[in-house]
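Aim 2 progress update. The chain analyzed this quarter is reproduced below.
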Amino acid sequence: MEIVEYKYKDGLLEKGFYKAKELIKEGNKDEARDVLDACIAIVAEVKYTNGKTEKDELEGVAIGVWLKRFWNTLENNNLLL
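Predicted structure tokens:
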């Protein structure tokens, strides 16, 4: 199986994380959930499409750390469905 490098814009995950936090402060929890879910999906696709581990980095941060940030934000703000 050939591994294809997934292309995404640099800073997308970081921007998504801070955008979600901003949306939560504004009270727009549905949109914040959508942003966080999209970020998780991007990380998952990169991880599984390219055979990465949670120790590999995206945007200079370990994949495992990104996932923990997104999930914790969902859980801590009662955004899980």
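The chain has a mean pLDDT of 89. Residues 12-76 form one domain. These observations will guide the mutagenesis experiments scheduled for the next reporting period.
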